[in-house]
Automatic annotation (TrEMBL):
<feature type="signal peptide">
    <location>
        <begin position="1"/>
        <end position="25"/>
    </location>
</feature>
<keyword id="KW-0732">Signal</keyword>
<dbReference type="GO" id="GO:0004867">
    <property type="term" value="F:serine-type endopeptidase inhibitor activity"/>
</dbReference>
<dbReference type="InterPro" id="IPR023549">
    <property type="entry name" value="Subtilisin_inhibitor"/>
</dbReference>
<keyword id="KW-0646">Protease inhibitor</keyword>
<keyword id="KW-1015">Disulfide bond</keyword>
<dbReference type="InterPro" id="IPR036819">
    <property type="entry name" value="Subtilisin_inhibitor-like_sf"/>
</dbReference>
<comment type="similarity">
    <text>Belongs to the protease inhibitor I16 (SSI) family.</text>
</comment>
<dbReference type="GO" id="GO:0005576">
    <property type="term" value="C:extracellular region"/>
</dbReference>
<keyword id="KW-0964">Secreted</keyword>
<dbReference type="Pfam" id="PF00720">
    <property type="entry name" value="SSI"/>
</dbReference>
<protein>
    <submittedName>
        <fullName>Subtilisin inhibitor-like protein</fullName>
    </submittedName>
</protein>
<feature type="domain" description="Subtilisin inhibitor">
    <location>
        <begin position="43"/>
        <end position="112"/>
    </location>
</feature>
<keyword id="KW-0722">Serine protease inhibitor</keyword>
Length: 126
C-alpha cells in the first residue's frame, strides 16, 4: 500500500474511534426515563429509546409504536382494550426525555398499574 494511502486509512480509523465508534452506529431519535411510583413511595423506572426501540422497557416495541401514534405527546397516547380491576391503588407515572429533539416532561396519576398500562398504550407497562 502506498504511504499516502496508509496515512489516510490510519487517519480515518482514528477519526472513527474519536467520534464514538463505527460509522453505522445510529443515535436514537427519542429517549426517555419512565417511572411508576406507588402509594408507599416505591418507584420502578425503565429506560426507553425509540428509533430504534431499545432500553430495558419490557415492551419497547409496543411502547414506541404507541408514542409514534401520539407523535410523542403522552397526553394523546392510544388506549388499549384490557380488563382492569376497579381496585384503587394509584400510581404516579412520569416520563422525562426527548422526542425527536423536543424535550418531554410528563406527570400524571392512574388509578392502578393496569389502568396505567391500558391508558398509555403499553408505555407504562412495566
Amino acid at each position: 500500500m502506498p504511504k499516502f494511502g496508509a496515512t489516510i486509512l490510519a487517519a480515518c480509523a482514528a477519526a472513527a474511534l474519536c467520534t464514538g465508534g463505527t460509522a453505522g452506529a445510529a443515535t436514537p431519535d427519542s429517549t426517555f426515563v419512565l417511572s411508576l411510583t406507588d402509594p408507599r413511595g416505591d418507584t420502578t423506572s425503565v429506560e426507553l429509546t425509540c428509533g430504534p426501540a431499545q432500553g430495558n422497557h419490557p415492551q419497547a416495541d409496543t411502547a414506541c409504536r404507541s408514542l409514534e401514534q401520539a407523535d410523542g405527546d403522552f397526553s394523546r397516547l392510544p388506549t388499549k382494550f384490557q380488563n382492569c380491576t376497579m381496585i384503587y391503588s394509584p400510581v404516579r407515572a412520569t416520563a422525562s426525555g426527548s422526542w425527536y429533539g423536543t424535550p418531554v416532561d410528563f406527570d400524571t396519576e392512574y388509578s392502578n398499574r393496569c389502568v396505567a398500562d391500558a391508558q398509555s398504550g403499553g408505555v407504562f407497562a412495566f
